[in-house]
Specification:
The chain is built from 5 helices and 4 strands; from the N terminus they run αβααβαββα. It has 126 residues and is an alpha+beta fold. Strands 2-1-3-4 form a 4-stranded mixed beta sheet, with helices on both faces.
Length: 126
């Protein structure tokens, strides 16, 4: 194997690592460019209701929203708790789905599938 081949292998390996890091950051929503954050948990049936509504009504194509999974991502769970506290909610009985709307002058929080679906209906006009 020549020096040229080794250089190509190293370049490809670096690109794969960079792509992997970007993929992890995006999937864990560490990179989040939205004032609206939907906190959810894998396996949560009420979260699935919200997700279905979002897909059926192309919500993510109409408004910028960030989704953060909190059951398996401790950093996301910490942000979830911080947002709830900012809304004046006690942290001992928090549940998902939970939506943070920091887009207005005063942040608002919505809890439960129906409240969140109603929020989306108002935002997208459906």
């Amino acid at each position: 194997m020549g020096k040229k081949n080794i250089k190509y292998i190293i370049i490809v390996a670096i690109l794969v690592v960079i792509a992997g890091v970007v993929f992890v950051l995006l999937n864990n929503n560490i990179l989040c460019d939205s004032d609206i954050i939907l906190f959810y948990g894998l396996g949560c049936p009420h979260c699935a209701n919200v997700d279905k509504y979002m897909k059926d009504n192309a919500v993510k194509e109409k408004i910028t929203i960030c989704k953060k999974e909190v059951f398996y991502h401790k950093d996301n769970a910490k942000v979830f708790e911080e947002k709830a506290v900012a809304c004046g909610l006690p942290t001992e009985n928090l549940g998902v789905p939970f939506l943070w709307d920091g887009s207005g002058q005063f942040p608002k929080c919505y809890s439960g599938d129906q409240d969140i679906i109603n929020f989306f209906k108002e935002k997208i006009g459906k």
